[in-house]
Amino acid sequence: SYVLTQPPSVSVAPGKTARITCGGNNIGSKSVHWYQQKPGQAPVLVIYYDSDRPSGIPERFSGSNSGNTATLTISRVEAGDEADYYCQVWDSSSDHPEVFGGGTKLTVL
Amino acid sequence: EVQLVESGGGLVKPGGSLRLSCAASGFTFSNAWMSWVRQAPGKGLEWVGRIKSKTDGGTTDYAAPVKGRFTISRDDSKNTLYLQMNSLKTEDTAVYYCTTEVGAPWEGYYFDYWGQGTLVTVSS
Description:
The complex is a heterodimer of chains A (109) and B (124). With 109 residues, chain A is an all-beta fold. Chain A has no helices and nine strands. In chain A, a hairpin with a 6-residue loop joins strand 3 and strand 4. Chain A is globular, with a radius of gyration of 13 Å. By secondary structure, chain B is mostly beta strands. In chain B, the strands form two sheets. In chain B, strands 2, 4, 5, 6, 9, 10 and 11 form a seven-stranded mixed sheet that branches. In chain B, strand 9 and strand 10 (108-114) form a beta hairpin. Chain B is globular and about 40 Å long. Chain B starts with a strand and ends with a strand.
């Protein structure tokens, strides 16, 4: 089945830009979605179809996808952005079509 | 406002059974594809399975680890989703989330609304 690889952790200072990557074989040919999960809470969709933002998600959150890497970018990072972030794709060729990355813990220094 | 409220979690012995429910409101449940996603303690997210809307066939798909043991069903008259879990194993211990699933075959699918989750613990 399709595998998504994320770095276990990313650290960033407040006000700076965080970039969280999601690697997969030719992932640029798939749509990538991103979820934010704060401790003790359910995941929240923050980016869908590579770069679209649901209503209520700040413009500071953006996404891109090309080649073998998709990236979630968080600009002007705030303390409240500290959370786990998961990427997800739908792999139509697999009998396990919904795939999540292993997650990245974003720490705001 | 979309609301998904899971219930039915608890402690069960290995080999036992449990049925989870997810009460939905704030959207047209009968038109929605619904999925279950689980998260083992301290681990990442894992898709469990989905059920399509009846207008799209009402069919189900399951992840390999639960295929043949778990069954997803829906009662559109009650706006409720179910997850019947049989032959439970210790590795099924997780928080189980009910989600709505949207998208299209040519674009892919994603999970736009999530419940708060219900904890299932499989232990002797």
